[in-house]
Amino acid sequence: MSNYKKAYIAGGCFWGMEDLFRTRPGIVGTEVGYQGGQNEDPTYKNHPGHAEGIEITYDPNETSFREILDYFFRMHNPTTVDQQGNDMGSSYRSAIFFQNEEEKEVAQEMIAIVNDSKKWPGKVVTTLEPFVPFWPAEDYHQDYLVKNPNGYTCHFLRFEESYI
Hints:
six-stranded mixed sheet, Met_Sox_Rdtase_MsrA_dom, two-stranded antiparallel sheet, alpha+beta, Peptide Methionine Sulfoxide Reductase, Chain A, oxidoreductase, EC 1.8.4.11, Met_Sox_Rdtase_MsrA_sf
């Protein structure tokens, strides 16, 4: 029996986020999907209010929620409202779906650290949203950049140096 944990974040197109997180130490699984919207069983064509996000399964003996958020804040621009790269709209918002008060506190601390770093020209606009059901995206979205190595992504590591 494992003691794996899950983290839920959104930061633009889910393909790029998944591709970067999949190879991180301590990450044992990723799944792309929709979260935080108005309908059940959302699809790519019908996900009003949902963010494109990822479910990250991780081993807390190898990485932490704080380290996941540190990487999250280095691989997308958390200062743009409802936009990453060419993708615009609330589906592409930066969000952390916290599951408990401890995760919320860690997220608030990380936002303060990122803001204090002055690495970005603006303030962090990442929303902190209480956990709501995560709906896996269609199969063709899962591992998309593995299946389509030249596919579109707006995600890349912007800062090598950790915030923490």
